[in-house]
């Protein structure tokens, strides 16, 4: 019987999967985070990336690997609210259907600022700004949309315009950082809590991650071509991530649990 790994189709997880091969008992099932979340609970996949918020909400049924995350400290560049009105004037926002974590993070950040906002789940891109004050996008689509607004790729991140193409880009992870000074964990890897991950599968995942991070230029080259974004920008995007769920990331995850009123279990597989 094969062991089924839930695999997202985002550039930000490519360093983890680029060098991972199917076979020898391992098969991949591809999906966006909201699909992977559901499949893991329903038993359609055995070990998967899950949105951190989904994990926290289902912590009695899921248990994460101790050292895998999609996290960052400060800007992430691909979890963006695009808006034309200033942040304080936002009233109606269109939400991506792909994400659990960033949707909850956005609610939290707006509530914290005392804003009452209506939300509608709707697929699309910047064209939604004709009908909404803001549109929340994540992953490849958020990154491509952001890059599409830049007329040049600046030499320094400090030269990125605040309002490229007349559109505000609010990076939710940066907002979280400004407020907490902590990393933000978007995703972890988990299994159902009564089904420990096979050590050999975890070993293969770790080897693949070492190869991916050790050969980041190659991974970035492939992803840059796939998404048609400049290679230099893709490299910066990828090396900015924190993939090991280290102590600061766990503090960030704990702070997020507390911010959204959930218990932080602090319980990981020993593998
Ligand atoms: C940072 C990102 O991380 C992703 C965001 C997720 C979420 O918001 O639920 C889930 C998985 C991550 O791969 C992104 O896609 O931009």
From TrEMBL:
Top-level division of the source organism's lineage: Bacteria
Annotated family: Belongs to the MqnA/MqnD family. MqnA subfamily.
PANTHER family: CHORISMATE DEHYDRATASE (PTHR37690:SF1)
Pathway(s) where this gene product acts: Quinol/quinone metabolism; menaquinone biosynthesis
Pfam families per UniProt: VitK2_biosynth (PF02621)
Function summary: Catalyzes the dehydration of chorismate into 3-[(1-carboxyvinyl)oxy]benzoate, a step in the biosynthesis of menaquinone (MK, vitamin K2).
Reaction equation(s) it catalyzes: chorismate = 3-[(1-carboxyvinyl)-oxy]benzoate + H2O
Biological processes, Gene Ontology terms: menaquinone biosynthetic process
InterPro entries, sorted: Menaquinone_biosynth, MqnA
GO molecular function, one term: hydro-lyase activity
Enzyme's top EC category: lyase
Keywords: Lyase, Menaquinone biosynthesis
UniProt-listed Enzyme Commission number(s): 4.2.1.151
Protein name: Chorismate dehydratase
Plastid is among the record's keywords: no
């Amino acid at each position: 019987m094969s062991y089924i790994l839930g695999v997202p189709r985002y550039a930000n997880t490519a360093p983890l999967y680029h060098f991972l091969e199917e076979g020898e008992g391992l098969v991949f099932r591809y999906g966006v985070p909201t699909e992977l979340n559901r499949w893991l609970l329903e038993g359609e996949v055995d070990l998967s990336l899950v949105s951190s918020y989904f994990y926290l909400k289902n912590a009695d049924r899921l248990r994460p690997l101790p050292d895998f995350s999609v996290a960052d400290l400060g800007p992430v560049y691909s979890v963006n609210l695009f808006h034309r009105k200033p942040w304080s004037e936002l009233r109606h926002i269109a939400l991506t259907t792909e994400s659990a974590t960033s949707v909850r993070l956005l609610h939290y950040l707006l509530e914290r600022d005392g804003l009452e906002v209506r939300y509608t789940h709707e697929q699309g891109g910047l064209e939604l700004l004709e009908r909404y004050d803001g549109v929340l996008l994540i992953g490849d689509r958020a990154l491509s949309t952001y890059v599409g607004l830049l007329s040049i790729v600046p030499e320094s991140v400090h030269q990125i315009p605040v309002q490229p193409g007349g559109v505000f880009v609010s990076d939710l992870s940066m907002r979280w950082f400004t407020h907490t000074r902590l990393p933000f964990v978007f995703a972890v890897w988990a299994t159902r809590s009564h089904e420990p991950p096979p050590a050999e599968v975890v070993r293969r995942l770790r080897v693949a991650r070492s190869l991916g991070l050790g050969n980041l230029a190659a991974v970035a080259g492939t992803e840059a071509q796939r998404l048609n974004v400049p290679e230099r920008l893709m490299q910066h995007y990828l090396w900015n991530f924190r993939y090991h769920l280290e102590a600061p990331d766990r503090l960030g995850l704990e702070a997020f649990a507390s911010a959204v009123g959930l218990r932080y279990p602090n319980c990981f597989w020993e593998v």
